[in-house]
Structure formats: C-alpha cells, structure tokens
Design brief:
7 helices; nine-stranded mixed beta sheet; alpha/beta; 9 strands
Length: 271
Amino acid sequence: MIEFSDTVSKSNLPLTEKIQLAENWLPRYTGMAIEEFGSYILLTNFQYYVQRFADIFNCNVYGEDKPMQVATNKDGLSIINFGMGSPNAATIMDLLIAIKPKGVLFLGKCGGLKKSTEIGHFILPIAAIRGEGTSDDYFPHEVPALPSFKLHKFVSETIIEHGYEYRTGVVYTTNRRVWEHDRDFMEYLRAITTIAIDMETATLFIVGHHNEIPRGALLLVSDVPITPEGVKTEESDLKVTKNWSDIHLQIGIDAMTHIGEKGEKIKHYNY
C-alpha cells in the first residue's frame, strides 16, 4: 500500500486509469477546464460552427491554439470542433467520459449516395456501417453502430418545427478521404444501398455505446460524389456553408436545448 507524503502525491503518480487520462487530456486538448463544459454537447468538424455559436451566445472560444476548439453558453450547452476523421471522433468520445454528458449530437457533413439526397438535405441516420476500422478497437465488428433513439426523436421534432424535411437511412463511414476516383468502391456503395457516406458517424456511435454516452448525428449533405459533377470542391463547400450551415447549427442548438429544458432522460436503460 502506498502512503502519500509531501514528496509523493497523487498528482505525481502516472495516469493509469481511463478516467484519469480523460480528466487530464480533455482540458489539454481544448484549453477549457472540465467545470466549464455543459451537460449537453454539440460536436462538429468545423471551426466556423464554433465561432458562430460563440457569436450567437456572446461566449468565449477556448482552444484556438489547441487541437480542438470549444465554447459553452449560459444554458449549459457546449460545442466542440474535434477535427476530421474516425480517430479524432474516437478520441473526443473517449475524452468526454470526463464530464459524463447527458447527450451528444454530431453536426457533420456527408456525401449523398441517392438521387433523393441532394445538396442541402438533412440526414438523420438510423445506423452507420463500420467501414472505418477505428471502431473495431471497441467492439467486435458484428456490433451495429446505432444512435440513441430518444435523442434522434428530439432532433426529428426540431427539424420539423423549423419547417425542413430530412432523410433517414444507413450511412457508410470510411477512413478514406480520397476515394471518388475508385469505381469499384463506388459500385460497392451502390450494392449496400447506403444513403450517404462520411468519416465519423459510425465511430461516434460505437465509442458512445462503449462509453455509455447518449449520442446522435444530424448530417448535412454537402456533395453528391457518385457523379463527377457532384464531387466536393472548395467553391462548392463554401456555397454549402453559406446557404445551410447556420440552420444546421440552429437545429442542433434548439434540439439539445429543448432536451435540457424538459429534463427528459435520453438514456432509459442499462447497458
């Protein structure tokens, strides 16, 4: 048994537990103290979303010199830009165990794979196919990547309240950013009948499940990569940001705020 003295303290011991790592690394990655995080979290890949959130609520942005940027409003809602890709998605969902959020909603962009998914459409995925590999470190590959139903119920209602439609279906998550040239891969995507493709959703769902964090995703179709003219470019992405990102963010804010105001539990069973 170790007895702590003036020369050996708990703070000097190596970080060996996952919760210890998360509590130490979440502030290190974001520049914001754990006490400043809200009970509900919006996740995004884009600094623009964090800055718009800060402008709306007149709050500070932390972590501008860190890997991740974050802001929290007075209602206890935080937004985090965790970067791009499944490894970063797994990292933030692991680090969030430090605050044990009541709900996490990912506001991401995706490529539409159906004629019914046009640029500017919203997708509320019912599941995601684990094509990224990162999630295999958490569960066997047979475990499905699913959102929390009650969280998506709030998001669905909020989309309708704003007067918008949304599509639903299965999203394919990949770790490949440059795949649009690969005709065999495109044929595979058609064969599995997925509605969209992205790089984070399956990872967020699986690691959220592993860490017992209620989670969901509201995706914005930013390109239609199954056609040559639909592949994303810098010009087309700027157009999407200008025309649809603000309402995307507002729906996320309203959905997560309403959950907090109603005090309704999203997690309604034991894992």
